[in-house]
Backbone:
């Protein structure tokens, strides 16, 4: 593929971030055709191709400029960044955008019979994790010396196997912890998905496309939960109605034909509009209320 005229984005091949990332790219207008090996997706309508990889490979692919962009969890990025620094390398990662999916946290969890009385209880303990560098920084910030047991997976069963006293692992709902009789006690890192970019300077053409893409991503994120609301109301009720419209900036006020004291109000609401809001608007004098979904938005 032409490196001068096409952008490459690294995304997770199969996992928790795959569907929301593909949906985001799709909402940004990208149509992908995937080859037989499924590792490469060709952007049919934009100068943008997708590389499907393990999420752990994304930081290096972007750092080494194999891909200009990458979508991954902050947890993976932060761990790799700290690892590079610990090994004496320069870690030049730039986060272009924080995204509204992949929410989870890296947390410490102890077996049910572990007597946890604050971080001091961790001193000298064995902690199993796949995030040794992030955990080491968190511990050192608290002046705690503990024994970090680095595992490549199945962290949650380490205490039962006698390999560790407690664990440091990713949690979203906590059901995996519960199933393993573990109790969450401290948050080490709050995480969500982010878009990162190469540290290498981009050609004007590519830089322009990155900017356009980021504008679209911004629009997609804004649209989530946004509604377009239309209603009729007496002019005198305008101040009360404006106060009731959730998260709207300046609404459009239009005169109604043949009714001097009545107007139509159109507004984008940056929050969902619930029945309760509609009922309050009606009480304030509004009628002919209509709520529509917003498909695209460009500020
Ligand atoms: P890969 O094969 O790509 O290495 P993986 O097993 O490392 O996959 P997943 O479990 O699919 O990765 O998680 C990918 C990312 O999703 C995590 O790094 C994290 O940022 C995010 N995530 C969100 N919720 C959770 C959760 N409950 N558990 C683990 N990761 C989560
Ligand atoms: Zn992974």
Residues:
């Amino acid at each position: 593929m032409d490196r001068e005229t096409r952008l490459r984005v690294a995304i997770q091949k199969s996992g928790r971030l795959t569907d929301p990332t593909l949906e985001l790219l799709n909402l940004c207008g990208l149509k992908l055709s995937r080859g037989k090996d499924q590792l490469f997706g060709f952007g049919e309508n934009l100068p943008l191709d997708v590389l499907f990889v393990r999420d752990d490979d994304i930081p290096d692919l972007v750092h080494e400029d194999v891909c200009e962009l990458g979508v991954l969890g902050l947890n993976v990025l932060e761990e790799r960044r700290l690892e590079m620094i610990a090994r004496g390398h320069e870690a030049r990662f730039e986060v272009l955008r924080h995204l509204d999916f992949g929410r989870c946290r890296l947390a410490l969890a102890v077996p049910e019979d572990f007597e946890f009385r604050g971080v001091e209880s961790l001193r000298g303990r064995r902690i199993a994790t796949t995030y040794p560098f992030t955990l080491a920084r968190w511990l050192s910030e608290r002046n705690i010396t503990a024994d970090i047991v680095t595992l490549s997976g199945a962290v949650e069963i380490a205490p039962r196997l006698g390999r560790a006293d407690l664990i440091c692992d990713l949690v979203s709902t906590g059901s995996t912890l519960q199933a393993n009789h573990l109790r969450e006690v401290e948050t080490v890192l709050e995480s969500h998905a982010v878009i990162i970019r190469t540290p290498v300077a981009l050609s004007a053409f590519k830089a322009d496309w990155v900017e356009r893409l980021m504008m679209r991503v911004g629009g997609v994120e804004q649209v989530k939960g946004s509604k377009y609301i239309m209603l009729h109301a007496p002019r005198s009720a305008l101040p009360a109605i404006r106060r009731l419209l959730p998260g709207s900036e300046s609404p459009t006020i239009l005169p109604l034909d043949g009714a001097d004291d009545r107007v139509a109000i159109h507004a984008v609401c940056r929050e969902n509009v619930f029945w309760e809001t509609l009922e309050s608007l009606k009480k304030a004098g509004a009628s002919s209320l209509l709520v529509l979904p917003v498909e695209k938005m460009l500020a």
